[in-house]
Structures are given as C-alpha cells and as structure tokens.
Design brief:
Blueprint: H1 8-12, E1 14-21, H2 27-43, E2 47-50, H3 57-66, E3 68-71, E4 83-85, H4 93-101, E5 105-107, H5 111-125, E6 129-133, H6 139-145, E7 153-156, H7 159-163, E8 173-177, H8 183-196, H9 210-223, E9 228-232, H10 238-249, E10 253-257, E11 273-278, H11 284-297, E12 299-306
Parallel strand pairs: 1-11, 1-12, 2-3, 2-4, 4-5, 6-7, 6-8, 9-10, 9-11
Helix pairs in contact: 9-10
Amino acid sequence: MNAPLHTAETKRAALTVLVAAPRGFCAGVDRAIEIVERAIEKYGPPVYVRHEIVHNRYVVDALKEKGAIFVEELDEVPDGVPVVFSAHGVPKAVPAEADQRGLDYLDATCPLVSKVHRQAERQIEKGRHIVFIGHEGHPEVIGTFGQVPEGDMTLVETVDDVATLDFPVGTELSYLTQTTLSVDDTADVIAALEKRFPDIAGPKAEDICYATSNRQAAVKEIAESCDLLLVIGAPNSSNSLRLVEVAERLGTDARLIQRGHEIEESWLEGIGTVGLTAGASAPELLVREVIARLGEYRTVEERQVKTTDERMIFKLPRQLVD
C-alpha cells in the first residue's frame, strides 16, 4: 500500500509558492469599501448597498457585520436611510430614482468605470452608435448601457460576434470596453472591429483598467514556471476569471478558489511549484490564508514575483471628507 500523502517525509518536501505582485485589492475596490465603512460611521447602521459593493463574499460578509445591508434594487431600500451604489456602476435611472425619493446616496462607482460612462455620453453626443465589448449581464455592462438611450449601444463579446453586426449604411460607429476583460481577447475583438469597420472610433486610451492589465501581466510572468496556479476570487468576478484563463492559455492548470479551506491535499500530488494570485476584489488576508493552508500539507517556500508597482489612489466622495 502506498504511503498517505501527508506523511512526515512528504510534509518536509518543499513546495515553492510564487506569489504574483501586483495582486488583490485595486484602488477602486479600496475606495468602494472605505465608502461603505465611512458611511456606517457617519450615518450609523444600517447603510444600504445596492448590489454587492465588490464581488467578494468575505468582504461583503465583513461589511454586513458592521451594519451594511445589501439589496439588488432601490425599491428594497426604505425611505430615510442612506444607500451606496456599488463599484461596478449603475444606470442613470438609479440615482434619478434616489433623487426622486429624496434618498441620501453615495456613489462608489470606480472612477475608471465612470470614465467609460462619460466616454459613452460623448460618443452619443457626436452621433455615433457604440459597439460595447463586454460580458452580457455583468453589472458594469448593465450600468454602462444605462448611460445612453436604449438602442444606441450594441454588445459584443467575441470576434465571432463582430461578424454578425449589421448596421445601416453610413452609421458612424465607436467602440468602448468593459474595464475587467482579457487584454488579449479584447485586442482580438478590437482588431476584428477595425478590420470590418475601418472608420470606427476608439477611446484615446484603452478602457481595460490598469489593475486588470497588471494582474494579467503578473500571471503571465509566473504561469509557465508553475505546475498549478491558484486564483483567489469569486465565481462572478470577471477580472478573477480572466486570470484563470490567462494561465490556462499558457498551458498551466489553474483553479479559482474563494477561501483556503477549498484546497484539497490531492491537488498537490506531483506538484513542485504553485503560483498564487488574487483578483482585484480579494483582500490580502485571504492570500495569507491560502499560504497557511498549503503549509498544512507541505513545507512552503514563498517567493514574491513583482512585475510593477501600483500607486493609484482615488478620492472619496465629498460627503465623507467634511
């Protein structure tokens, strides 16, 4: 009979863990969480939050314990209590409804998402129809579509979708993108759009946010040196799912996990090097938790692999800095 994996001899075998940097929280997520925390301090609990403030169960649960109540629609918010809009952005109709009801609201939309909203408005003012590259049903896509009149924006997800587009002759076009997409996939879709519609207008700078691009670049740096890559993130986190895809395309097995306890001992059979990163909504505490879990099975030799420094900071809403 073979010896069990967790024998003392196996436990002593070193497991190299390459920890990607940058990883985890981005400036937009930091700002959104701080907005909720400061709102609770200023107004007292409960503070309502429309939609998950960020896509991470640990973060959401921690804010619930402090007095946040998460709802999907504004009609679930009682009169006379403050409400926060999530980092993913909301359609224009949502703050308009809040104003109509006299609700105090704080907009935690990531400034880089807000930038895309403003770009969409400008393109419509110029008489252009917008082709928006994004994932159907994602809150950021819903919020961006809600910035312009219905029918003035068309969603595409893939190169194949571009081939199905059919606009009247003479239609002036522009394109914008969701901020949390695959850098490589999006480049392919943009190339297909520009080939099919040579006069299509694009943004002056790419819409994919710095944090998404940086985290994908960090995964590319470590993936080929790993036998397995672990990505800490939620199943509904677009940027986290893209990190898994980046590794898999480089031929590295990758798994999306939310917490350390999900890791099974069998995953480490025949594994010498594990890569580790975290999506933009995952706190560093969960990275430490995962490394501790790996340490229950093997002797961990941790190495940080830094590809760039991030120094971005976003200002808080005026209501919270009085």
